[in-house]
Design goal:
Blueprint: E1 2-7, E2 13-18, H1 97-105, H2 130-164, H3 172-194, H4 200-209, H5 214-238, H6 240-250, H7 258-263, H8 273-294, H9 307-326, H10 332-347, H11 354-381, H12 394-412, H13 423-428
Antiparallel strand pairs: 1-2
Helix pairs in contact: 2-3, 2-5, 3-9, 4-5, 4-11, 5-10, 8-9, 8-11, 10-11
Length: 429
């Protein structure tokens, strides 16, 4: 701003301020703003300047920042990036007497060329301790158990919170979102180890249409059921007081209170059994069909790390759209685990008989058949990979059927053991 003197009409000297013309910073070209008619005045757009400020990436006074210009060499335990791998004191070479004994035997001076920045090597069997060896053999099932426990604990607790509070601490929308994002967190937690199936129907569909080993699929299903039982126990323990209070106010047993609707799934009394079956069938078909699409690199796969987020949103949408009629199961383990926990808590064995054994023809038959149907429709319409039986040549399909038949007979001990079958010749017939 420039100031200059002036004389008013009454002879009084006044300071006048002459506005200085706006000058853009050196090295930049200020683009024309959307405010027409403002000339060289700066733009006050809330979207920010169109060109980058050349001074935005540097300090005005670097001397006031002691770390200015220095490289950060220390590990950073940031949640926005992979955590660092460090060597803790107990794992450094020389922390154990065996390490020092080895140095003496090799004639190495422990003070010269120290190995303390190197981790202690594993044992002779290749493992650091006994648990490392056990975990090596059960790592994938353990991850499935942990992921299922995390996902279903979050979902069950959100559902119990809604029902036991009569909607004061939640709603159907909030519990649907909790189910979806609970599975998202679980997939992010364990997906890199086991794949994060967390659903028997998904494991079976991947076994049939993507070549996932059938034996491994059975192990996964057992781990998922165990995780669902664990989650049911956690949820019941956390909301036990609320369940008891709700049942006492209604003067009914716990198995007949509103908490039972949250803990286990069942069709509404006015819903026809066929409607209930196809509700679960269609929801599972859409879920698994979308999973096949997300895993198809020949289609339009999402960016790295986005699968779990998209699946979380997808599960929330499926529960919102199809969850009213049946409670929104779409997962065999989601119903079986809490139902078994409820029976163990004394709610009565009749829970496995209600609605004509709904737990069998609903969460198991409808969900598994729906998952297989969804994968089949996607492969028939879009997928072109050779791992799907839909794309098998007739000769290969026939041969695969005969191989399965022969292997099954050998396992069951049916037929003569010395009989050999020329599979290729049979395929040509």
């Amino acid at each position: 701003m420039a100031s200059s003197g002036g004389v008013g009409q009454d002879g009084e000297v006044k300071d006048t301020v002459e506005p200085r013309e706006y000058e853009p910073p050196e090295g930049t070209q200020e683009a024309a703003s959307g405010n027409e008619g403002l000339g060289n005045n700066p733009s006050f757009s809330l979207a920010g300047p169109e060109t980058q400020n050349p001074n935005s990436n540097s300090y005005e006074i670097p001397s006031r920042n002691r770390q200015y210009g220095e490289q950060q060499n220390d590990p950073t335990w940031s949640l926005a990036e992979p955590l660092p791998h460090i060597i803790r004191p107990g794992m450094r070479h020389g922390a154990l007497p065996e390490d020092r004994k080895e140095d003496r035997q090799t004639g190495q001076d422990p003070t010269v060329g120290r190995k303390q920045n190197q981790p202690t090597g594993p044992r002779d069997d290749g493992f650091f301790n006994t648990w490392s060896k056990i975990r090596h053999y059960i790592r994938e099932p353990l991850a499935e158990w942990l992921g299922t426990t995390i996902a279903m604990t979050i979902g069950l607790c959100a559902t119990l919170s809604n029902f036991t509070s009569s909607g004061q601490a939640g709603s159907f929308t909030s519990q649907s979102v909790a189910w979806g994002f609970g599975f998202m967190v679980a997939i992010y937690t364990t997906g890199g180890v086991s794949g994060g199936h967390l659903n028997p129907a998904i494991s079976i569909a991947l076994s049939v249409f993507r070549g996932f080993p059938a034996r491994q699929s059975l192990i996964y299903i057992a781990a998922q059921l165990l995780g669902a039982i664990t989650a049911g126990g956690f949820a019941y323990a956390i909301y036990h007081d609320a369940i008891v209070e709700v049942a006492a106010k209604a003067k009914v047993p716990q198995s007949l209170s509103v908490a039972a609707e949250a803990f286990i799934t069942a069709p509404k009394p006015f819903v026809h059994p066929a409607t209930a079956f196809f509700t679960e069938f269609l929801g599972s078909a859409i879920l698994v069909g979308a999973i096949m699409a997300l895993g198809d690199d020949g289609n339009a796969p999402p960016g790295a790390g986005m699968n779990a987020f998209i699946l979380g949103v997808l599960i929330s949408i499926v529960v919102l759209a199809f969850g009213y009629n049946t409670g929104g199961c779409f997962n065999c383990a989601r119903d079986f685990g809490p139902r078994l926990v409820a029976v163990m808590a004394g709610w009565g064995g009749h829970l496995f008989q209600v609605t004509h054994a709904w737990w069998v023809w609903g969460p198991w038959c409808a969900d598994i058949s729906g998952a297989l149907f969804g994968a089949f429709i996607y492969d028939m319409a879009i997928f072109t990979g050779g791992e799907s039986p839909v794309n098998y040549p007739r000769r290969r399909r026939k041969r695969a059927f005969r191989v399965r038949k022969v292997n099954l007979r050998k396992k069951l001990g049916i037929g003569r053991k010395d009989k050999t079958v020329d599979l290729e010749r049979n395929c040509e017939d």
